[in-house]
What we know:
- The structure is a single chain.
- This protein has about 220 residues and is an alpha+beta fold.
- The chain has one domain (about 5-225).
- Helices cover about 40% and strands about 20% of the residues.
- The strands form two sheets. It has a four-stranded mixed sheet. Strands 1-3-7 form a three-stranded antiparallel sheet.
- It is globular and about 50 Å long.
Amino acid sequence: xxxxxxxxxxxxxxxxxxxxxSKPYNDYGKGFYCTEHVELAKEWAxxxxxxxxxxxxxxxxxxxxxxxxxxxxxxxxxxxxxxMLHRKGRLSTSLAVRGKEYLVENFLPAFExxxxxxxxxxxxxxxxxxxxxxxxxxxxxxxxxxxxxxxLGEQFVLKSQKSFKALKFLDYTIADNNIYYFKRRSRDxxxxxxxxxxxxxxxxxxxxxxxxxxxxxxxxDPRLR
Length: 225
């Protein structure tokens, strides 16, 4: 990869991100969550009524091990297994609890062995889509489609001390709450509306969470591609 420019949206200026300080129940656990897209960083920076900052960094990726969950050897279930391991969310049925366990047991990549992870960001709407799949309410095909709604961005997550040391702060830009908070809300609303339209369609031939457990489907199953 070489050098990349990354942005981190925040309510404050962060010149020196601290390793190990983030919350453990973020999408990929503890880490420093960035994006290559400044507009997305500005959306993520703004809470209602408060301006934020898009902190800009340069990172030297040479020598870093990077898990790219968008590469062909991985499926959305690998991403979902990591998400289910970390994110908090009530699973109201025994099938959903077993589904979470099955995903973690059979689809969880060795993500902790990497310096950084590239993958989907699960905003609230997208986490609800993932939860619907584990609850057996939508098929794998519908989940895959849902994750493309609302032009969801990928995030670049620094996981190791080595990756933190490779990061250099450059500068920041202010994210105007009056613009970017509402852009984020609009993106979320757009995704939810499109999602509701998608689940109105019956996917009679699709693969559901119950099928994955019952048929003991593994990561190398061609039906997942």
